[in-house]
Design goal:
By secondary structure, the chain is an all-alpha fold. The chain contains seven helices and no strands.
Length: 143
Amino acid sequence: MSATSDSLPALEALPEAEQASRLLRLGQLAAQEGDRRLARRLLKHAAMLAPTNDAIWLSLLPLLDDEADRRVCLQNILAINPDNQQAHALLADYEQDTQPSGAVRLLRPRRRLSVWSILFWILEAIMILILIGLGILLLSSAF
């Protein structure tokens, strides 16, 4: 898929929303061609550019191998679109499969956060700080 790799530098000149949209499409094409590694890489980059785009998370979901990553992906989809019935059903299936058998529910140690979920949280924090800074700037210029 060399055409995909060659077209990535040209994306940097586009606005982030357009970059994310094109990366989504390229990731979907890579997945269709069977290149799961490239598809994951493209879609994860798209998710960093547009973390509130549920289409990106939905495309990324079947490409994730780690159960914890799939769960985070489903939770992200539901955070963006709480009405997504497919994500609700998949998360319910996941939670049902991970419930311990027997009448007593055992407490499990907390799972480590994935690198991508940590990066997502950091990106959210940066966006909040930028918005706060813009608010302060606007308030200070009003007086």
